[in-house]
Amino acid sequence: MRIAFYTLGCKVNQYETQALEQLFTQRGHTLVPFDGDADAYVINTCTVTAVSDKKSRQTVRQARKRAPEAIVAVCGCYPQTHPQDMEGLSVDLVAGTGDRLHFVELLEQTWRDRRPVTALDDAFSRREFEILPPGGLEGRTRAMLKVEDGCGNFCSYCAIPYARGRVRSLPLEEAVRQTREIQARGYRELVLTGIELSSWGSLPDLIEAVCTAAPDCRVRLGSLEPRTITEEFCLRTARLPNLCPHFHLSLQSGCDSVLARMNRKYDCARYDQSVTLLREYFDRPAITTDLIVGFPGETEEEFRQTLDFIQTCAFAAMHVFPYSKRPGTPAADLPNQVPKAEKERRAALAGEVARRMEQEYLESFCGTIQDVLFEEEKNGLWRGHTTRYLAVEVPAAEDLHNRVRPVRLETEKGDFLWGTLIKTPGLADV
Predict the structure, then answer these.
(1) I need a labelling partner for 49 at 20 to 30 A (CA). Which of 27, 132, 155, 329 fits?
(2) C-alpha distances in angstroms, 154 versus 165, 398, 403?
(3) CA distances (Å), 255 to each of 36, 233, 258, 277, 355, in order?
(4) Cα 353 from Cα 348, distance rounded (Å)
(5) Where are the beta strands (DSSP E) in 84-187?
(6) Pick from 30, 92, 36: which is nearest to 60 by CA?
(7) What is the pTM of this model?
(8) Parallel/antiparallel/unpaired status of strands 117-119 and 189-194
(9) What tens digit of pLDDT does each residue of 332-379 get?
(10) Alpha helices in 282-401 (DSSP H)
């Protein structure tokens, strides 16, 4: 079969898509672009927000319209939590977030029998971590290693624990083995990812083991909880030369009363302590975050506290989301829901602050020389990222794909930096 994938959502979803791609090719199937002709279209969905749900439905309808005779399969968090929504979508195969190893067989069965199949389990019944093949999406220089699944935080706004179930972790020995495999396959960067990465046992042990197993690979961390950032964490990880100084530290609100209603497990003082520690032990680390505005009951004063707090943190980048009601979560039933127009207004204001902080952070690197891992070329311009995940573009006629090269950063251009390759006599490409 010709299989086309479309992935929505987080790095865990991206990881699981690349694993499925490998499993399909190992069975003799061919990967094709999603916007072309295929025998089967697979949509790996997200349900973090109502917008994610809507995008998933739109993508399903587009695939069905494009190829009425093809198999349309849906997997991921959306069908796991909203199986009833699949009934009106003309989907041939419905799967969730579990048992990815058998998804190939289910799709083959659906193609052979031409009968709809639904394969959903109870996410909370899962006890073992499902080991999938590591790697990156086709043509990428960056690989992902999923080391954790599930979440036990039960933040009041979030449906993901219901989609993913209990915390399960990849054993350390298997993480090391897969890390070595990733380096041997030529990837130059490895991203440790999970639904709740901070729940992986002793995280410094894992980071040290992975960095040691792949000394020629950059190692980048997925999203972390503030509780992870301790003096011990920083002491142990700051000495690892291939660990990227880029930390995505979940915030969600800069107001203690809102954090309490969200059932987050920290306050602003603890978050500030984490930021301070990172800046003490790492050179100009890129600290990024997520922010939810317009949470139920959020007053104008609470929102202003959040705006003040994020500016003290001086984030390198932020993702700002208007609160999205998720049916079945405690927050959906809270009083004083904020009107949509007000949520959008606050998101716009927070977005302006975020853009200003990002610009200031980018400008602070102008005039410096940074190593850039190059990934793709368009119209004679090569784009890549520094260790701090700053996007960089340079003009170059040579093939820079999957190469690390020193670049003099010259100008901030919105969301990226413009630079010039350093031509050092006798310096071989890394």
Answers:
(1) 132
(2) 11, 49, 41
(3) 47, 26, 5, 20, 21
(4) 9
(5) 93-95, 117-119, 142-149, 168-169
(6) 92
(7) 0.93
(8) unpaired
(9) 999 999 999 999 999 999 999 999 999 999 999 999 999 999 999 999
(10) 300-313, 340-363
